[in-house]
Design a protein that fits this description.
alpha/beta; D-Maltodextrin-Binding Protein, domain 2; 3 domains; 7-stranded mixed sheet; two-stranded antiparallel sheet; 12 helices; 11 strands
């Protein structure tokens, strides 16, 4: 047997995702490159590892056993690499972060340089809804969480990152022209985030102050889903503009002017008040405190310029 670690990594990923396409994307390889590695691995076994029927990948029982063994081998190799780095005095381990769905437009920029500087650090970042983010924090299964409104029922420490600015938006065909569009908004379908979302809370607060009752409501569970619904003309919504850069630039989505907007909150990296941070987590927090302003200027200047242009 002369199979390589690279072949095992590729097969384990295909077995996990049940897709050559998804595995190639996750591994940053071309699909032909993945297919070649799978073919070379299969040559060393008389029993099929997988079957491809149509476009679907099916892992055989034997293949699943090999995939499980491959994962154990990969974990052991990673452990050896981490121990080597640790003996050299370098950071190793897994950094666990839970992020609300809109935070996916923010958090990667506060991670990339840190991870590149510390190859022994692995990242586990779960992007989900706010209720689940707070649940992971309560259960102490993550180091940090990224939220735009602080939980009230648990005590946390926080590190502010950047502002979270929300505007009412519509698709390019909609006609909102002045600063009091309340009457028009009352006649339009309104698109809400799920219950518990900070964006939904801000939207409901705005509607209550304006005495607006939606004549038709849509509820969607992610910021991306809301954006696509607005683009398609299904209704209007209050949205963080952090995830609308290309849509605004290309005039696919428009801002609806209101005197009470923008509504501003703040993106905060939070952790349990009494949590004893690991050396890795403490090193990351130090990095954030030292570099957050540089990251803000380098990655989010367009964001500040856009908000200031609308509301100088």
């Amino acid at each position: 047997m002369e199979y390589t670690l690279h072949q095992l990594k590729v097969f384990a990923k295909v077995a996990e995702l049940r897709s050559v396409t998804k595995a190639s994307e996750d591994l940053h390889l071309s699909q032909p490159a993945v297919s070649i590695q799978l073919k070379n691995l299969q040559k060393q076994f008389d029993i099929p590892l997988m079957e491809v029927i149509g476009r679907k990948v099916y892992i055989t029982e034997f293949g699943q056993n090999i995939a499980d063994a491959a994962r154990r081998i990969i974990e052991e190799v990673n452990s050896i690499d981490n121990k080597t780095l640790a003996f050299k005095g370098k950071l190793v381990g897994q950094l666990k972060i839970s992020v609300v769905s809109t935070g996916k437009y923010v958090m990667p920029y506060y991670l990339s340089d840190f991870l590149n500087a510390h190859p022994g650090v692995n990242l586990n970042m779960d992007v989900t809804n706010k209720l689940k983010v707070i649940e992971t924090l309560e259960k102490n299964t993550v180091d940090f969480a990224l939220v735009s409104t602080l939980p009230k029922h648990i005590e946390v420490n926080r590190q502010p990152l950047i502002s979270n600015t929300l505007f009412w938006v519509c698709n390019y065909k909609s006609n909102f022209s002045n600063m009091d569009n309340t009457a028009v908004l009352k006649k339009r379908p309104l698109i809400f985030r799920e219950q518990g979302s900070a964006t939904r809370q801000a939207m409901e607060g705005f509607l209550k102050r304006r005495n607006i009752t939606a004549f038709k409501r849509l509820e969607l569970t992610s910021n991306e889903a809301v954006k696509q619904a607005v683009i398609a003309g299904l209704g209007n919504s209050l949205m963080p503009i952090i995830g609308l850069k290309s849509s605004l630039k290309n005039n696919i989505i428009r801002i609806i002017p209101f005197q009470e907007t923008p509504i501003k909150t703040e993106w905060n990296l939070i952790w349990l008040k009494n949590k004893r941070l690991s050396p890795l987590a403490q090193a990351y927090l130090t990095y954030i405190r030292e570099e957050k302003e540089k990251i803000k200027m380098a990655k989010f200047q367009w964001y500040s310029d856009f908000v200031n242009k609308l509301h100088p």
